[in-house]
Amino acid sequence: MKPSIFITRKIPEIAVQMLREQCEVEMWDKEDIPVPVEILREKVKTVDGLYCMLSDSINKEMMEEAQNLKVISNLAVGYNNIDIQAASEKGIMVTNTPGVLNEATADLTFSLLMATARRIPEASDFVRNGEWKSWSPMLLTGQDVFGATIGIIGMGRIGEAVARRAKGFNMNILYHNRSRKEQAEKELGATYVSLEELLAKSDFVVLLAPFTEETKNLIAKKELEQMKETSILINVARGGMVNESDLYDALVQKKIWAAGLDVFEQEPVPLDHPLLTLPNVVVLPHIGSASIKTRITMSEVAASNMLQALNGQVPSDLVNTNILTR
Ligand code: GLV
Ligand code: GLV
């Protein structure tokens, strides 16, 4: 009998085909609407493999009800939406899609950084709204990117890809990470500093660390107060790393200059969220890795991890490697 899998959203056809060759595939085939949690729960009870999105919360209760589940393949590099400990306890493999999205995510990070620094969305609205009456010397002036200091929090593969772009902009590169990255220091001229020093010296503070208990609320009132008044916060990691109400206060009180956010505590961000009322906040709908080519590749990588696990192999991108020794 072929293993059965459930895919929680419409994914690129090429990945569906890969899976159909070896599995009984069921797919929630709506592109824009997440699978209702009751349906997800029902599917998880019986399938051998779950192919899910970062927007699906896969919790302990769900996994406890699972009778055959061997693998959860997440279509993302981050996997904070899955209770990893509960999965490991049940011997369920969890996989992610690292590596293939580094450059696309770094491109988006830099786009957001530049759009925020030079007020691109605001300037575009200014033209469309008929507010452009004359050229004026200080009209819509922003912050320099070239030659500025960038502080990268989380120097993983995406952080390094951002640093390579920063180098091309002649930026002074600071970073903070759990461990020193000697290679990045040598190749990119990045300097390891404490979080305090990074916050105090950076013109751009860029969050790229994984979301864990350690990085939850990493940037709150105290940290925002350590930043320069001309500085810009860029979050392309996970919303929960920034205290949003403290960020709102810091922006209103001009403790920092602007923020560019691709991620939020609650996604989709509610339309009445106070941050959306501020002109110096540039917002995006969690599109870090969203290039056509990258998303197709990610969907194939997630399919391949799923098939490896179901064929009794160790998947290339196994997250909870501790289960191998059990
Ligand atoms: C996107 O946020 C990802 O984790 O891949
Ligand atoms: C992602 O792959 C990272 O290590 O930052």
From TrEMBL:
The entry's keywords: Oxidoreductase
Domain D-isomer specific 2-hydroxyacid dehydrogenase NAD-binding residues, every copy: 110-288
InterPro entries (alphabetical): D-isomer_2-hydroxyacid_DH, D-isomer_2_OHA_DH_cat_dom, D-isomer_DH_CS1, D-isomer_DH_NAD-bd, NAD(P)-bd_dom_sf
Domain D-isomer specific 2-hydroxyacid dehydrogenase catalytic: 5-320
Pfam family, one: 2-Hacid_dh_C
Record bears the keyword Oxidoreductase: yes
Family designation: Belongs to the D-isomer specific 2-hydroxyacid dehydrogenase family.
Protein name: D-glycerate dehydrogenase
Source organism (scientific name): Bacillus suaedaesalsae
